[in-house]
Queue: 2 jobs
Job 1
Amino acid sequence: QLQLQESGPGLVKSSETLSLTCAVSGGSISTSGYFWAWVRQPPGKGLEWIGYIYYGGSTYYNPSLKSRVTLSVDTSRNQFSLDLSSMTAADTAVYYCARHSEVEYFFDFWGQGTLVTVSS
Amino acid sequence: QSALAQPASVSGSPGQSITVSCTGTSTDVGVYNFVSWYQQHPGKAPKLIIYDVSNRPSGVSRRFSGSKSGNTASLTISGLQAEDEADYYCSSFSGTINPCVFGTGTRVTVL
């Protein structure tokens, strides 16, 4: 069974860059037909797609976050990462990593999520 | 790209059927059959329950079904059970510029 696990700081200062990593186990990140995605959810609010990356390095970003987001993939470690710069209080959220079907556009496996709080 | 519109809350009694709507536009729900639905219990990650408008992943109860008409997709839960009480989100492919849009979310309450 595929498993995803987010890791990174739970607290980030305003204006700094958030760096999160998602470790994939039970399957290869290099499997064709899937993107590797980040989705976030502010406390008490809805889901927001951040972006996704293919194992070959192709990336797609939410236009509203594109100027601040960088996704990368490390196939040798079977993991992918998110960098989000210029953090503000509005970026406080639970950040999820997930697998996304390239062809049918759904998220079928999710990590448990990690809460990131931005402090001033 | 605006979020897909969902009712904030829907409720029903055990055994009843309820429907959650998801309204988009002619650039997402109306033109692509890539609508998916997710169930999220408090403090948990979302779980895929419907994909490609009406398909259920293996292991998902047959009580969950999906459909689409025009710019609106719908999730129906039949034989409502206490365990169905959760938040539900729709999502749709919306083109290559901004491929993924989520709905605003619906809280389903079992009375």
Job 2
Amino acid sequence: GESVGLHLPTLSVQEGDNSIINCAYSNSASDYFIWYKQESGKGPQFIIDIRSNMDKRQGQRVTVLLNKTVKHLSLQIAATQPGDSAVYFCAENTGTGRRALTFGSGTRLQVQP
Amino acid sequence: ETGVTQTPRHLVMGMTNKKSLKCEQHLGHNAMYWYKQSAKKPLELMFVYSLEERVENNSVPSRFSPECPNSSHLFLHLHTLQPEDSALYLCASSQVGTGGDGYTFGSGTRLTVV
């Protein structure tokens, strides 16, 4: 399931540090945003979502921030663990009602022990 | 079985072959999707089926032919493919209209065209 051959931006962090992954989205009319995690050999897994009427949402060890003014989304992972190593994608819903998501190009997170 | 299941996991086919990819979802969702993930474009939407009706065909070549016989099953029929079609093909499902939690993806089929 890895994005073989892609030249992805890579974020390398030490185990235990906090990670911040950024994403710029394209459509100012998008009203729903999701972060996905894709580990090697697997399909993307849902992490956390946020609607456009919010600017922050927290989950377990993860926080998503939305800045609609600059069309920017970020994913913060607290106390990063080796199991967090993966490619992370943001996605936006640009089609009202039908939930056809548009994905960003992804960021590879490498956690150093 | 739970979630979204794709078969086969790996497929190698010649350019003159005909093969099919299968996707099955056990989540009671009402929409299913095919995405292509390759070295050039990470996640490209190919087809959308909502309530078993194809509602989107994202300019995909006719050598890819989807089929959605019911809300739980989705197929992608392949014929006379090109080497550049080698990629990971991902199926996903969602529940449209409930403001739910986005897609659930399968693990994908890694396709190699030789």
